[in-house]
Write a structure and sequence with these properties.
alpha/beta, 12% strand, 270 residues, 10 helices, Rossmann fold, binds magnesium ion, elongated, binds guanosine-5'-diphosphate
């Protein structure tokens, strides 16, 4: 059965079906994506991780579609912001694509904004629900830390730990990292946190191959059950339609016979 046929039987399971299709397509590099609100520093963070200015950075809403870059055996994926009030249809398409393709998600939050807001908590909840099914990992990355005092950073981090107790929170500054590289300052690079983040991503990447295999099996099993159920429902619908057609046909035959005998009677009378 092809994926289109499965989609036709299970129209509610498009996300699962697309993810399975993506995983089965061909040998794919592990995918690390960023996710978070506009202007929190997603593109800048990716630039630090891939060590070049590959992703467009701006104070205005810049990234409107997925953009990706291969670096050190990983496909790094930039996404538009999450903010529902300014999101457009193409943003939605991009976010769906990122959801389908990502193995590891970096949830980006800027420390200047304080604790997570409701929409961010909801997104983290969704990611954690997904992790239970797919095994895909999320790391929270607290960005732009050079912009606040150490105490503020510690306070925000403590609040976020309460909001998302199960996820690691890694504080970073993409700007400090870049300044460190430009001025060859090992201290600035160290204090940027980017190398700690790199290590955390490397550790998560080590699980991707096995996680994908487990995910394919789990998706296959779950879809198999749903397909069986879908086919049974389809059969029942067909039988119901057949019965309806039979009833219509029987009705038609009776009406036709009545008409026929009426005509006969009238012809005999004439
Ligand atoms: N001070 C400071 N500004 C940053 C840092 N990272 C990003 N920015 C700035 O924040 C703005 C938004 O950054 P961008 O990476 O485009 O955010 P995105 O919309 O989440 O992709 C830009 O003006 C960046 O220069 C950082 O580590 N420190
Ligand atoms: Mg961006």
């Amino acid at each position: 059965m092809g994926f289109e046929a499965i989609n036709a039987v299970l129209p509610d399971q498009t996300d699962q079906i697309n993810r399975l299709q993506y995983l089965l397509a061909e040998a794919r590099l592990p995918v690390v994506s960023v996710i978070g609100k506009y202007n929190h520093g997603k593109s800048s963070l990716l630039n630090a991780l891939v060590e070049c200015e590959q992703f467009a950075v701006s104070d205005a809403r810049e990234t409107t579609a997925l953009s990706d870059f291969e670096y050190q055996g990983v496909r790094w994926l930039d996404t538009p912001g999450l903010d529902a009030d300014v999101a457009r249809n193409d943003d939605q398409a991009a976010m769906t694509g990122a959801w389908q393709q990502s193995d590891i998600r970096l949830f980006v939050h800027c420390v200047r904004e304080g604790e997570l807001d409701q929409s961010e908590c909801d997104m983290i909840d969704t990611l954690q629900q997904d992790a239970l099914k797919s095994g895909r990992q999320t790391l929270i990355v607290l960005t732009q830390i050079e912009q606040v005092e150490e105490q503020t950073l510690a306070n925000v981090q403590a609040l976020m730990k309460q909001q998302a107790p199960k996820l690691p929170i890694i504080p970073v500054s993409a700007h400090r990292y870049r300044q460190g590289l430009e001025s060859a300052s090992a201290l600035k690079i160290k204090k940027s946190g980017i190398n700690e983040l790199r290590q955390a991503v490397q550790s998560a990447l080590a699980y991707v191959e096995q996680t994908r295999k487990d995910e394919v099996l789990a998706l296959g099993e779950s879809l198999e059950g749903l397909i069986d159920q879908g086919l049974t429902n389809l059969q029942a619908r067909l039988l119901h339609q057949q019965a309806k057609r039979h009833a219509l046909l029987a009705n038609f035959v009776t009406e036709y016979q009545n008409l026929h005998s009426k005509l006969h009677k009238q012809l005999n009378r004439a």
